[in-house]
Amino acid sequence: MNTPLAQAKIQIEKAIITFENVIKIALKKGYGVACYRLPHQDRFKLMIDTREETHTCGEAIENLPSGFIFNPFENKNAKAAYYLQAHLEMVLGDDEVKANQAEYYPLRDEINQQLSTDNLPSDWQYHQLVGNEQSTMGNREDFIQLVEKGIQQIQDGKMEKFVPSKCKKMALEHFQLMDTLWKLSCKYPNAFVSFVSMSETGSWLGATPEILIHMDREKIFHTVALAGTQAYEENMDLKDVAWKQKEIEEQALVSRYIIGILKKLRIREFIENGPKTARAGNLIHLKTTFEIDTKAINFPDLGGVMIDLLHPTSAVCGMPLKESEQFLLVEEKHDRAFFSGYLGPINTDGESYAFVNLRCMQLLKNEAIFYAGAGATIDSNPEKEWQETEMKCNTLLSVLK
């Protein structure tokens, strides 16, 4: 006998299979895809770009059609970021793909027709970058030496903070995309969960807790200062969490950096809330939020201006920004690629989001590269910074085991 709960489970499983088949069809055709679930929401959305080549934004984000932005760490100009236009769309639970414009109706019908047949792709054909093997993968000794070298730079007065990162490659056994995304969504409801696959970017999956910019339907601009990390313990009361001086100072540096940018733009009318302890899955952080009413200050393109001024944030580079960024570009032995860049839906449902690409992995054939970083100051312990990166890698690894 089918209970209502059993019937609901069957419907969810059927919807996931349909959604997954659409992604497989799109990838096999060589299309670009972005699948995501916003924080605190329960439905995944799929965008499909039917162009043969990956394109860049080319203009300010306020002027773009609905789509998905994906920017690497080293690019500081949003106009040069990769942009996936939402020619076709689908929400998890829908029976078919929808098209935004009449010119895409034939492609929409082609996919919907294939869905109703048995001619469905049996395997995944992710976009992969040729020759994108990391020449040097991060290990404990290299990372600790990097942290020690950075601390010496701080002691010499050249930096206040830096954010070393590492990457590690691991085999993926029996990997299932939608199963992984679903588990991440359930385990990390506060995170932005996403999968992006384009010819020029390769394929990336992640669950990030940090907003870079958000422009809501009321034209209120939002950003956050997120720094400091501890492991979350079951039944922990966030109001009673104690933070060490190193972590408090680290977060204050990020907040001051944002306030400094607002001062440069002569913006004085903003709401600052925090710092407060915020949970991000198996971790907790110190978080301060900032809000600006762009209508009240007559600054409608603030989102596009701030996305360039904020990236890369001091939370992924350090302070001063120029010196810490240069140190990392020279001393890190791996290419960050899209780790600590940003990504998110633009001009979709009346809102625009860009999230810092943390807690992410790059999908290769039967394996993946995991990325993580840790904020370091003069009081940092290199071994503890290594342990922090291990905790952050476990954000994704925990749902793959």
UniProtKB/TrEMBL annotation:
Transmembrane segments: none annotated. It holds the Pfam family Chorismate_bind. InterPro entries: ADC_synthase (IPR005801), Chorismate_C (IPR015890). Residues 140-392 form the Chorismate-utilising enzyme C-terminal domain. It comes from the Bacteria. This is Chorismate-utilising enzyme C-terminal domain-containing protein. It comes from Persicobacter diffluens.
